[in-house]
Predict the 3D structure of the following.
Amino acid sequence: MKCFEFCAKNKTRCNRKECRYWINKPDDQMCCILSSKKDKSMTLEEIGEIFNVTRMRICQIEKKALAKIKNLFAS
């Protein structure tokens, strides 16, 4: 079982700061995976706050990811 699955199942906060998914956000059990699985959509600003980057950087990452996905299906 992955740590975010364990935290979700047991409704506990993650204390593994070395985990690549750990964020300093107590409302989301300290896990960006659990934060992204919420039923509400998030703004680029909110996502930027989670990863401690700007809204513009999230926008750049989103555009690159969408371009890669389009290239996968264009082939």
